[in-house]
Amino acid sequence: MDQNSLPPIQTTARDDAVLKALVGFVSAEALRPGERLPTERILAERLKVSRNTVREALTRWEGLGLVERRQGSGTYLKAAVSPDMLHLPLTLAGGNDFTSLMQTLEIRRALEAEAAALCAERASPADMTEIERKLDIMEQAFRTRDGMSSEEDWEFHQAIYRVSGNPLFEQIIAAMHELFHRFWEHPLGVRDFGHASFPYHRTIYERIAARDPQGARAEALKLIATVEDDLKRGAAKLKFLGQT
Amino acid sequence: MDQNSLPPIQTTARDDAVLKALVGFVSAEALRPGERLPTERILAERLKVSRNTVREALTRWEGLGLVERRQGSGTYLKAAVSPDMLHLPLTLAGGNDFTSLMQTLEIRRALEAEAAALCAERASPADMTEIERKLDIMEQAFRTRDGMSSEEDWEFHQAIYRVSGNPLFEQIIAAMHELFHRFWEHPLGVRDFGHASFPYHRTIYERIAARDPQGARAEALKLIATVEDDLKRGAAKLKFLGQT
DNA sequence: AGTGGTCCAATGGTCCAACCAATTTCTACA
DNA sequence: TGTAGAAATTGGTTGGACCATTGGACCACT
Fold first, then answer.
1. Which of A100, A149, A197, B202 could form a disulfide with A141 if both were Cys (CB 3.0 to 4.6 A apart)?
2. Spatial CA neighbour of B33 closest among B74, B71, B67
3. Mutation target among A92, A96, A178 for the B interface, most CBs of B within 10 A
């Protein structure tokens, strides 16, 4: 039997309907991020549903990062809303241990390489200027403080993601960045952590400037490889010292 | 059930506290996906919180795909829950259009290549047997139906993600698979959609079997490239016909 | 033994009315 | 005119009620 010939019927879908109505409202009113939505009480009255139902719908949107609620103030739009959005809720089993850090690094390696390659294909002259500016700032910070600067480093990489033309790169890696950051603060006792990765920032930039996707991909892979090496050294050191 | 695994929560930040308490409960009871959570009324009573607050917390979890609620039956765990989860709500603007499909394909290309490379490094003999089995099934289905079979094809790729040793690959791509699937059903009028990618499944397998990470990476990139080409052809065709 | 029907308790879904807590706005006083 | 305090606004929480669906128990009939 064809499985699709008997789809489950849809009986009740109150809050989904509320969501749909909200999408329609935001579109009709042309609300832009930062603007305030009607109050829950007004929405409940207009949509002829209880305030509880409105709240469930808004809770969903809040979970998706589409909306921010401020008690006493109101509910504010945080991102553009369109009728044909697609949501991919991901929950990663994170953690601070060596294994999960390596796993997130593997994901980052994959995305970093691809973003660099796409960047090399698509960067406009203006884009290149912007990336070079971020690179200069990063190198300057490196020389001044004689060490990797996670903040300027991160901005350089973000610029590449942005120029890649695919917002998903930045979204995914940004979500994992918190994890990296937490870890960056305590570099496992490896004093020169991140030093090895420094030169590859410029080589990546050069490959992008040369419109060489494969070269950019290769350099990005080398960069992440050095970070992985540092991570492994740190883990080995901790293990040697008997820590977890 | 252990009474002490659901202690009353502290004041302020109610629903976040409820979520934290729920995480603790699931951990303490070692609940596995598919098992049923306590009813909302019981949770409300144990946590000394109103049922509405419990519902808001569960709505969050439902939005994250962690939990499924069935009226009249109960609330069921859909995924493993750990205290240090990382939530990553991705929102794609535009559902079925060409741009967002290409964007997800770019992500998939990145992850597919990396997973194949890792797979080539880490696959055990048993793993290789499993992958080859999936490959045979897929090729069999291809010859029988004279066309790509999204189901068997998907299983082959999943096997690779699994053998890569990094669950994040499967999680991220699985989250996007729904999009691919919806699209696969309506291949944009390209009759032989996916045909071109067929031979690369075996070449990927061969590179993995040969313990050749770079080769596996290259073959995976070729596979996705054929899919992208099909997608572009389909988009051009639609544009030619004046559709959207 | 199996089939279908009926009933009933459990459970999530919705609603209401009130109050709490944070924020904003208005107002009266110095 | 400036500012502290009152009042209104708004999201957060509570408790209670009822509805819709589910799934098991029980029963009559074949």
1. A149
2. B67
3. A92
